[in-house]
């Protein structure tokens, strides 16, 4: 394989030491899946995005996402990082990323401080009841008790491009204490086709804290998970916990020393959820 230029960005932050690091390959036209997986392993971040611009369409890209262990259908933070990297190089502000999950609309702009930001609108999401056996296995692997869950936010599987099991803690203390059985949780997640387990705590109606175990990708915990934030927005809409159009903020990564901020816009109906945030180059 020829040498590949990998850009490195921190997404959902304005600090290169915060957010979720992502690798970005802007021209993966000639790369095969095995090449991409090899690069993702070498980079070592939770996700690396591989882009190939569609011929004759300067604002459309085919995009694939790889963790160090496997390909995933969609990744939010690597999408934000990729869009910002493209914007820095003069790409159109309005883009379409063609992913394994479907087309994702992406736009870029600047925050009041002049930092480049990006917003993605997910594919139409799906929310379904989580099988009892899966929930019981996940709770056991996490060493959580059912009584420690928020009864107003029941377990569900939500998919806005990637499948996540959403479990809501009743207290901040429960969310803060994350020690889990990686092997047991990974096996259960693979059987259910899950990308992460989205552990959340509701601080206020429009403010959530999240932690995302990602053992199926070879990562203990993800510091900012855009696809899970989109799934959470769809989940809250489906449960009637928000009145669309609504906006929530998700805070993630604080316990890892990589604080992240994800803004989530939830429209009426059953359409895609928009997740936005900043991204900055890493050294």
Would you give an account of this structure?
- With 283 residues, this protein is of the alpha+beta class.
- The protein folds into two domains: 115 residues, Diaminopimelate Epimerase, Chain A, domain 1 (Roll), CATH 3.10.310.10; 140 residues, Roll (Diaminopimelate Epimerase, Chain A, domain 1).
User: How confident overall, as mean pLDDT?
Assistant: 97
User: How many separate helices?
Assistant: 6
- Tell me the domain tally: 2
Determine the structural class based on helices, strands and strand pairing. Answer: alpha+beta
- Low confidence ranges: none
Q: In CATH terms, what is the architecture of the largest domain?
A: Roll
Name the helicity range: 10-25%
Strand content: 35-45%
Q: Number of DSSP strands? A: 17
Give the neighbour order of strands across the main sheet. Answer: 1-2-3-4-6-7-8-17
Ends distance: 25 Å
Largest pleated sheet? 8 strands, mixed, barrel
Report the CATH C-level class of the largest domain: Alpha Beta
CATH superfamily of the largest domain: Diaminopimelate Epimerase, Chain A, domain 1
- Secondary-structure element string: EEHEEEHEEEEHEEHHEEEHEEE
Query: What gross morphology would you assign?
Result: globular
> The CATH topology of the largest domain, please?
Diaminopimelate Epimerase, Chain A, domain 1
Whole-angstrom Rg: 18 Å
């Amino acid at each position: 394989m020829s040498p590949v230029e990998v850009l490195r960005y921190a997404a959902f932050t304005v600090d290169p030491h915060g957010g979720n690091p992502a690798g970005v390959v802007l021209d993966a036209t000639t790369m095969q899946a095995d090449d991409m997986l090899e690069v993702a392993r070498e980079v070592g971040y939770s996700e690396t995005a591989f882009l190939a611009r569609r011929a004759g369409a300067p604002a459309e890209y085919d995009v694939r996402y790889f963790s160090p262990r496997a390909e995933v259908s969609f990744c939010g933070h690597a999408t934000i990082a990729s869009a910002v990297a493209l914007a820095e190089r003069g790409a159109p502000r309005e883009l379409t990323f063609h992913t394994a999950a479907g087309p994702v609309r992406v736009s870029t702009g600047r925050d009041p401080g002049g930092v480049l930001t990006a917003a993605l609108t997910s594919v139409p999401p799906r929310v379904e009841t989580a099988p009892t056996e899966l929930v019981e296995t996940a709770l056991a692997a996490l060493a959580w008790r059912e009584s420690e869950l928020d009864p107003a936010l029941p377990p569900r599987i939500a998919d806005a491009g990637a499948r996540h099991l959403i479990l809501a803690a009743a207290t901040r203390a429960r969310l803060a204490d994350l020690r889990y059985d990686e092997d047991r949780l990974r096996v259960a997640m693979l059987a259910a086709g899950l990308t992460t387990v989205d552990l959340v705590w509701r601080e206020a109606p429009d403010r959530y804290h999240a932690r995302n175990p990602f053992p199926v990708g070879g990562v203990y915990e993800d510091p900012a998970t855009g696809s899970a934030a989109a799934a959470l927005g769809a989940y809250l809409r489906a449960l009637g916990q928000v009145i669309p159009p609504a906006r929530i903020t998700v805070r993630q990564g604080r316990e890892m020393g990589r604080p992240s901020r994800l803004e989530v816009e939830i429209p009426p109906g059953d359409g895609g959820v928009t997740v936005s945030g900043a991204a900055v180059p890493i050294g």
